[in-house]
């Protein structure tokens, strides 16, 4: 019975939450040159998130997600990933300069230049000793499960973690998940 348009996206939501808590945080993302970009970044901007690394795409619209919530609370999402798929590390300046933590929204690992950028940032963070967290999602587990498990093997248990936010993502990891944890810690392996 209600239709609302709000800001969001996994990375923007985490950045806004950290900003509200007073953490210095920057968002690396890509939006279109359209009115949806202002809506998408509204909460992050209000929370004091640094938006200097947000790229603008003149050809592809800002990503949108339409969420349908049933009377029983079940959610179904219809998504258009939009400009974020074209996130370009070369255009992003030095995103890890002064960083104390790198958080990757798993959708960034699905495809295109955004995937290449996310993987390069993970590698760079590892070299710099910057802790990394990965917010998992069902599409990544469904389409690139082996990649997730490879990344998990490189997670430093003292510092890093994989956030498993919902029952679908937990199920997608199968035997690697014991019980119902919200965070998985896996010991780093030598390669």
Short key terms for the protein model shown above:
8 strands; 5 helices; two-stranded parallel sheet; 191 residues
Q: Note the total helix count.
A: 5
Computed Rg: 17 Å
Strand content: 15-25%
Taken in chain order, the helices and strands follow as HEHEEEEHEHEHE
Tell me the strand order in the biggest sheet: 5-6-7-8
| Straight-line N-to-C gap | 53 Å
SS-derived structural category? alpha/beta
Biggest β-sheet: count, sense, barrel? 4 strands, mixed
Number of strands: 8
Low confidence ranges: 157-161, 163-191
User: Average pLDDT value?
Assistant: 79
Task: Give the proportion of residues in helices.
Answer: 25-40%
Shape: globular
Task: Explain how this protein is built.
The chain is α/β, with parallel strands linked by helices. Helices cover 33% and strands 16% of the residues. The chain has helices spanning 10-20, 35-46, 112-128, 138-153, 167-173, and strands spanning 30-32, 55-57, 64-69, 75-80, 102-105, 132-135, 161-163, 183-184. The chain has a four-stranded mixed β-sheet, with helices on both faces. Strands 1-2 form a two-stranded parallel ribbon. It has a two-stranded antiparallel sheet with strand order 3-4. The protein is globular, with a radius of gyration of 17 Å.
Question: Layout of helices and strands, plus pairs?
Answer:
Elements: H1 10-20, E1 30-32, H2 35-46, E2 55-57, E3 64-69, E4 75-80, E5 102-105, H3 112-128, E6 132-135, H4 138-153, E7 161-163, H5 167-173, E8 183-184
Parallel strand pairs: 1-2, 5-6, 6-7
Antiparallel strand pairs: 3-4, 7-8
């Amino acid at each position: 019975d209600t239709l609302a348009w709000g800001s969001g996206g996994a990375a923007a939501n985490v950045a806004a939450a950290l900003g509200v808590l007073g953490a210095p945080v920057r968002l690396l993302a890509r939006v279109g040159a359209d009115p949806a970009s202002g809506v998408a970044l509204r909460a992050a901007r209000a929370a004091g998130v640094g938006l200097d690394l947000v790229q603008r795409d003149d050809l592809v619209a800002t990503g949108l997600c339409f969420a349908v919530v049933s009377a029983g609370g079940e959610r179904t999402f219809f998504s258009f990933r939009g400009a974020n798929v074209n996130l370009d590390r070369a255009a992003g300046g030095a995103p890890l300069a002064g960083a104390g933590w790198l958080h990757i929204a798993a959708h960034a690992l699905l495809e295109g230049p955004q995937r290449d950028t996310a993987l390069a940032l993970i590698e760079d963070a590892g070299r710099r000793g910057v802790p990394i967290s990965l917010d998992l999602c069902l599409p990544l587990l469904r389409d690139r499960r082996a990649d997730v498990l490879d990344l998990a093997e490189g997670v430093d248990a003292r510092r890093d973690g994989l956030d498993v936010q919902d029952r679908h993502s937990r199920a997608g990891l199968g035997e690697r998940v014991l019980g119902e944890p919200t965070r998985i810690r896996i010991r780093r392996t030598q390669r």
